[in-house]
Write a structure and sequence with these properties.
The chain is an alpha+beta fold. The protein has 4 helices and 12 strands; from the N terminus they run ααββαβββββαβββββ. It has helices spanning 2-6, 16-20, 44-60, 115-129; strands at residues 28-32, 35-39, 65-69, 74-77, 80-82, 86-90, 105-109, 133-138, 143-150, 153-161, 166-168, 174-176. The strands form 4 sheets. A 6-stranded mixed β-sheet has the order 3-6-7-8-9-10, with helices on both faces. The longest helix is centred in the first third of the chain and has 17 residues, at 44-60. It is globular, with a radius of gyration of 16 Å. The model is unreliable at 1-6 (pLDDT under 50).
Length: 183
């Protein structure tokens, strides 16, 4: 591991090539404007929520779209590679390696270690890249907050807590209660 650390770039921003050289060690490696962000493996309740959401999304997205869960690279720039917990994009937008553009929908399930990153930095970077829809699920509350990109900025379109229903028509029709995502 020490040899791998010695090969990290010094005095310059990280790039996609640097990210490709990172070890496959169970951590999530992302780049945000040239800064390496390392997250630990997610907790049990996080994974349950991601799994339930994936099933709901898979049943709701149109045939010309694809739902994927992390880890899968979304390349927004040479120095910005994110891995949303879940993403939806047109099938023809994907390459074998990554999604080389902003997704139609990015979803993050909050964890204590990533909460601020997901709510502030990642949200802002996806907004700048033109991701049309951004949803954040808090499995502890449980809740979901949804933003839609309008005139280049995110505007909150929904915030639902507990057993109340989250029903939206865009980017496709879907409905569920946040409480249904967690035990």
């Amino acid at each position: 591991m020490a040899a791998e650390m010695m090969s990290l770039p010094r005095g310059r921003p990280f790039t996609r090539d640097d990210l490709d050289a990172m070890p496959d060690d169970g951590h999530r490696y992302e780049l945000l404007d040239g800064v390496l962000v390392v997250s630990p493996a997610p907790r049990y309740v996080h994974q349950l929520a991601v799994g339930e959401l994936h099933l709901l999304l898979h049943a709701a997205v149109p045939e010309d779209a694809q739902v994927l869960f992390a880890p899968f690279d979304v390349v927004l720039a040479a120095d910005t590679v994110l891995q949303p917990d879940l993403l939806v994009a047109p099938r023809d937008a994907f390459t074998e390696r990554d999604l080389p553009t902003a997704p139609l929908l990015a979803i993050e399930v909050l964890s204590p270690s990533t909460r601020r990153f997901d709510l502030l930095l990642k949200k802002e970077r996806l907004e700048r890249a033109g991701c049309q829809h951004y949803w954040v699920v808090d499995p502890e509350e449980p809740s979901i907050t949804a933003w839609k990109l309008e005139d280049g900025a995110y505007h909150q379109i929904a915030r639902v807590i507990g057993d109340d229903r989250f029903d939206v028509a865009e980017p496709f029709a879907i409905g569920f209660a946040p409480a249904d995502l967690v035990p």
